[in-house]
């Protein structure tokens, strides 16, 4: 029986073209067995200090990981999770570390057994054989809004089902700041993308809307067929979310910042969200995300993978999305990010509005270690 005998971490920094080339950071984990099988995982650590801090926590898991059976990954997850109560209770950096390790463990189990992740966690039978519907998830940053309308319409023309637009990010677009201008932007976007395209607007974390301006903005967008509004208020602003509920016809999305099943239980108990965001690189990996999916299914809402980092996260996210009937669409960054296009041999692409579910062993991707380590950062 093979055993895990090597744990390696790769902290990286990279420019993200879908966010006006801002510098972002991720932590990768590589596990190898004594007979040479390799599994990869990733945490969406975002900032430089949190990336290095997570690296320390991952290396501290070596005593559990080294010597463990790669086919017994769920028990290994439980052992690691049992260490969290002191310094990662209900989330935080511990969950980044657990996420990266868990994804690598599932990948490794697949490499050893020859099974794809989708085979191991299950694929919903209603899913069409030609893959998941896929939307272009990007930010709006150009000061020239006509150029932004044209850019997003091109994604639809290139085969995406629709667009999800993050506001309040890097750049000078100032979308999300002026209600009338925001509504005009979506009107123009609808005109350019055509009647069938899905349009979703994501407030992001830096904008602050009053209840009245949020309602006016969302109702204005609904005139142009808004599919969903994401995080219109901060997640803990229950009172405004409750007031919004019933006054709008679009779906309300949120919760991508939650860390674990207990946080998601609390969010779902409010009954205020239709679409539940969940990042596999944050929520405790594939094992943590599967717990969230079971909750989402029991509450008859929708699961949405927040897949906004590397192709490793995307591979895991696609398999998770394909495992449940409660998934409407899969997100993909449309402009070639180095963490998507350069670090794997077979980057994910949208074809005719769909994205294929990987079928190879584990995550079903081939990580180019040379390309990845070119982005390694030093403390
Ligand atoms: Mg979001």
Structure characteristics:
379 residues, alpha/beta, Enolase-like, domain 1, TIM Barrel, nine-stranded mixed sheet, three-stranded antiparallel sheet, 14 helices, 12 strands, binds magnesium ion
Task: Describe this structure in a few short sentences.
This protein is α/β, with parallel strands linked by helices and about 375 residues long.
Task: Give structural notes.
The protein has 379 residues and is of the alpha/beta class. It has 14 helices and twelve strands. Strands 4, 5, 6, 7, 8, 9, 10, 11 and 12 form a nine-stranded mixed beta sheet that branches. The protein is globular. The two termini are 37 Å apart. Bound molecules: magnesium ion (MG).
Strand-helix topology:
Elements: E1 4-16, E2 22-33, E3 38-46, H1 48-59, H2 62-65, H3 73-81, H4 93-113, H5 117-121, E4 132-139, H6 145-157, E5 162-166, H7 179-193, E6 198-202, H8 211-222, E7 226-230, H9 238-244, E8 251-254, H10 261-270, E9 275-278, H11 285-298, E10 302-305, H12 311-322, E11 330-332, H13 338-341, E12 354-355, H14 369-373
Parallel strand pairs: 4-5, 4-11, 5-6, 6-7, 7-8, 8-9, 9-10
Antiparallel strand pairs: 1-2, 2-3, 4-12
Helix pairs in contact: 1-4, 3-4, 4-11, 6-7, 7-8, 10-11
The structure holds magnesium ion.
The site of magnesium ion (MG) has 5 residues, from loops.
CATH class of the largest domain: Alpha Beta
What would you call the shape?
A: globular
The number of helical elements comes to 14
Tell me the count of domains: 2
Provide mean pLDDT, rounded.
Answer: 96
Name given to the CATH homologous superfamily of the largest domain: Enolase-like C-terminal domain
For the largest beta-sheet, the strand count, sense and barrel status come to:
9 strands, mixed
The assigned CATH architecture of the largest domain is: Alpha-Beta Barrel
Whole-number radius of gyration?
20 Å
Separation of the first and last Cα atoms: 37 Å
Small-molecule binders: magnesium ion
Task: State the secondary-structure class.
Answer: alpha/beta
> Element order, helices and strands?
EEEHHHHHEHEHEHEHEHEHEHEHEH
Please count the beta strands (DSSP E, at least 2 residues each).
Answer: 12
CATH fold label of the largest domain: TIM Barrel
Strand residue content: 15-25%
Question: Could you list the spans in which at least 5 consecutive residues all have pLDDT below 50?
Answer: none
Overall helicity: 25-40%
